[in-house]
Amino acid sequence: MKKILIVFGTRPEAIKLCPLVNYLKADGVFQVEVCVTGQHREMLDQVLRVFNVVPDADLQVMRPNQTLAGVTGAILSAMDEYLQRNRPDMVVIQGDTTTVMATTLAAFYHHIPIAHVEAGLRTGNLYSPWPEEGNRVITSHLADLHFCPTMTSRENLLREGIAENRIFVTGNTVIDALFSTLDRMRGLHLYVDGIPDCVQPSAAGGGRRMVLITGHRRENFGEGFRNICNAIGELADKFPEVSFVYPVHLNPQVRGTVADVLSDNKNKRKNIFLIDPLTYEYFVAMMQRADVILTDSGGVQEEAPSLGKPVLVMRDTTERPEALAAGTVKLVGTDRERIVSEVSRLLTDPVYYEQMANAENPYGDGKSCQRIGEVFERYFAENR
Ligand code: UD1
Ligand code: UDP
After folding, report:
1. Hey, what's the torsion of the CAs at 22, 120, 254, 293, to 10 degrees?
2. DSSP letters along 285-304, please?
3. Which of 14, 70, 166, 216 has the most crowded CB, counting CB atoms within 10 A?
4. Is residue 316 flagged as an active site residue?
5. Catalytic annotation on 255?
6. 158 to 96, 113, 120, 151, 161: CA distances (angstroms)
7. How far apart are CA 307 and CA 299, in angstroms?
8. Pocket lining: 39 vs ligand 1, CB cutoff 6 Å
C-alpha cells in the first residue's frame, strides 16, 4: 500500500487538510500518515479536536514570537529527520505558510513527490501577503501535483510554466470543511463565551446587529494594525447599537496592538468584545450570525461568500479575485477612514447591503477531497 504523508502546522492548513485526512482514511486505498509541525499550538489543537484527527507525529516547533527564519529552520531540520526515518511515497501540503514551504524543501531534498493543495494563488506582489506569496512561488516550482481551487489559479500556474498535466482544478477543500461542519452543527445550540446573549449565534435575526472581525497578517503589523484597531473603535462609537466581536489571533504582535488600542481603560467600549480564537464550529456559527465580516484572513474570504455575508478585506491585494468579481468581497486596505466609511455604508444602506450579501460561492461544491483522492489513485497507477 502506498504511504501518503499529510503535513500541516497552522489553523487554516488544519481546517483545509483534516477533511482530506478523514476522506483518505475512510477510502482505505492508501496508508495515511499525519505529521503536524506544531507551527501553531493552541489554534492547531482546536482544529484537530473538531475534526477528530490524531496526528501520528508532532514536531512541536512553536516558540513564543517566533521569527520567520527560526520557524523555517526548525521545521526544515525536524522534517528532514522525519522523512529520513519514514520515507512516504508522497507528501501533501496545503496553502502558503512556513510549514508548507519548509516541508516542501525537505521533501524535495529527499526526492519525495509533493502534492500541493490550494495551488496557484497569486497576487503578483512578493511582499503582499508577506511572506506567503514567496512561499507559494517556491512551493509551486518544487511540487509534482498541483490542486487548484479555481480556473484562475490554474491559469496562474500555466503562466509560470507549470506542466498542464500536473494541474487539477478541484475546488477548495475549505468548502468540504465548511459544509461538513454546517451538517454537524445542525440542531446544536452553540454558546460563545465572552459575549452577551443578544449577540449569541442563537440570537440571529432577533438580536443586535453584529460585525465579526479577524486580523493577523504580518504585512499589516505596526501602523496598519493600529489603523485597523482605531477604525474599529471609531465604528463602535458611531454605532452604539451594533456589536463588534473580535476573536483575537494568538500572535503576540496582534494581541499587543489590539490590547493597546482597544482595551485600555480610556478606550474600553461596551459594544466591542475581544475574545479568544473560537473553535471552528463556533466561528462558523458566528459568521452565520454576523451582518458584516471585516477581516484580512484568506480562509474567511472563501467561506463567507457561501454564507451570503458581505466581507470587507483589510488588505490592498488579494489572491482570491473570484469573490471580488462575484461582488461579495471588497478590498478596503488598512486606511482608518476607508474602513470606517465602508463598514458604515454596509450598516446604513440596505440596498447596497443586499447587493453584497448574495450567497455566491466560487470555491467549490464540497467534493474537493474526493477529486484529490481520485488523482492520487491515477498517479500511483501510472507510477508504480
Ligand atoms: C501563520 C502563517 C500565516 C497564516 C496564519 C494563520 C507563516 C509565516 N504565517 O501566521 O501565513 O495565515 O498563520 O493564522 O507561516 N501563537 C500562539 N499559539 C497559537 C498560534 C500562534 O501562541 O496557537 C503565537 C506564538 O507566539 C507564535 C506567533 O503566534 O510565535 C506567530 O505564529 P506564526 O505561525 O509564526 O505566525 P502567524 O502570524 O500565526
Ligand atoms: N477561524 C476559526 N476561529 C477563529 C477565527 C477563524 O476557526 O476564531 C477559521 C476561519 O473560519 C478560517 C480560518 O480559521 O477557516 C482562517 O484562519 P486564519 O485567518 O488564521 O488564516 P488565513 O486563512 O488568513 O491563512
Report:
1. -80
2. HHHHH-SEEEE--HHHHHHG
3. 14
4. no
5. no
6. 18, 20, 9, 10, 5
7. 13
8. yes
155 is catalytic: no
pLDDT at position 265 is 57
Please give the C-alpha separations between residue 123 and each of 95, 137, 164, 183, 329, in angstroms, as whole numbers: 14, 11, 21, 33, 16
Write the single-letter amino acid at 344.
S
* Residue 22: per-residue pLDDT: 98
CA dist., res. 178 & res. 281, Å (int): 9
Q: Does residue 277's CB lie within 6 angstroms of at least one atom of ligand 1? A: no
| Residue ranges, the chain, pLDDT below 70 | 264-267
C-alpha distances (whole Å) from 314 to each of 75, 216, 320 are: 30, 10, 13
- For ligand 1, say whether the CB of 46 is within 6 Å of any of its atoms: no
* Whole-number average pLDDT of the chain: 96
Question: Which three-class secondary structure state does DSSP give residue 268?
Answer: coil
What is the reported pTM?
0.98
pLDDT in tens, 110-156: 999 999 999 999 999 999 999 999 999 999 999 999 999 999 999 99
In sequence order, what are the beta bridge partners of 19?
none
Strands of the sheet with 292-295, listed across from one edge: 272-275, 242-247, 209-214, 292-295, 311-313, 329-331
Decide if 102 contacts 8 (C-beta within 8 A): no
Q: Within 10 A of 87 (CB to CB), how many other CB atoms are there?
A: 11
